[in-house]
Amino acid sequence: MASSSSSSVPVVIYEEEEEELVMDDGSGSGWVEPRTSCDHLASLSSDLAHIPHPATPCSKCQHPMENWLCLSCKQVFCSRFVNKHMVDHHEQTPNHSVALSFSDLSVWCFVCDAYLDAQAIPTLRTVHQTAYLLKFGEDPPQLPSNDQCLQLGNE
Ligand SMILES: [Zn+2]
Ligand SMILES: [Zn+2]
Ligand SMILES: [Zn+2]
């Protein structure tokens, strides 16, 4: 006599957890990390050691402050909150896509549509440092380094 027991076997459903290999693109958070790379640096000026002073007015409308420096042709244009001449400049010359803000010395790439980390990109570090020096009259604060040579006088 086969008594078919109606014992219910618990069914375990394994939810396959896919490992998240995708980098967080910052779309759920309000804060967007500046990019540490940019493919649009080829058109940058080869001489970013010499740039206009941060107090240079917009070359189109003479707006006096918080302008942007095009890092390709080193012309100065006002922000999108004024007469958006920097935006116009990029639209007219699309390969001029990287600009430095004289307001807070951040670097923006119009093609990446993102801020760039000037400290992480050697090409930008130089011009950021130069702009900082022009704006504040001193070098930017350096990250503490362990390889500082302390010259101690041994008697
Ligand atoms: Zn870019
Ligand atoms: Zn302007
Ligand atoms: Zn330009």
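DSSP finds two helices and five strands in the chain.
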